[in-house]
């Protein structure tokens, strides 16, 4: 399914294109479980730098996280200035502060072009991209966050993020 193929035009990707393992996460920047997963994924990426390609896609759950969609838009605006990952790190670090004023403060910390950032946020320039991520997730029947796919296979992490690492290990073992 094309929804499980990383697309440089709309995705945020870490890791080499040649990596034998591709992890796609559907996440919500206001979700406490996604915050926990964020740290775990980055530890995994440090240990498996050559073996894993990681893709983050937005899946804000507006019913329970009212600030998640605007935070996703703000992260895209930061990404347009080359600061997606540092901005997302800040959002997860300050997850209880995702109102518009806080999003601007976080952008200032990264020394973004604030006129551009505020304009893009106010004009919802990146709302369509966020909605494209949501549509891809819905096509895959994503219902909760975080949701992970490893080489196109859903990995249930509801009982622990160690399942993600085991899935990566299994793919690597099979490829050797």
Major beta sheet, strand line-up: 1-3-2-4-5
List low-confidence stretches.
none
SS-derived structural category:
alpha+beta
Distance between the termini: 25 Å
H/I helix tally? 7
β-sheet strand percentage = 5-15%
Number of strands: 5
The biggest beta sheet is recorded as: 5 strands, mixed
Rough shape? Answer: globular
Compute the average pLDDT: 95
Estimate percent helicity.
40-55%
Radius of gyration: 16 Å
Order of helices and strands: EEHEHHHHHEEH
Structure description:
The chain is an alpha+beta fold and 176 residues long. Helix content is 48%, strand content 14%. The protein is built from seven helices and five strands, in the order ββαβαααααββα. α1 links the parallel β2 (21-27) and β3 (52-58). α2 (68-79) packs across α5. It is globular and about 50 Å long. The mean pLDDT is 95.
Core attributes:
176 residues; alpha+beta; 7 helices; globular
Give a quick rundown of the structure.
With 176 residues, this protein is of the alpha+beta class. It is 48% helix and 14% strand. It starts with 11 loop residues before the first strand and ends with a helix.
Spell out the blueprint of helices and strands.
Layout (H helix, E strand, L loop, with lengths): L11 E3 L6 E7 L4 H16 L4 E7 L9 H12 L4 H10 L6 H10 L4 H9 L4 H13 L7 E4 L2 E3 L6 H14 L1
Parallel strand pairs: 2-3
Antiparallel strand pairs: 1-3, 2-4, 4-5
Helix pairs in contact: 2-3, 2-4, 2-5
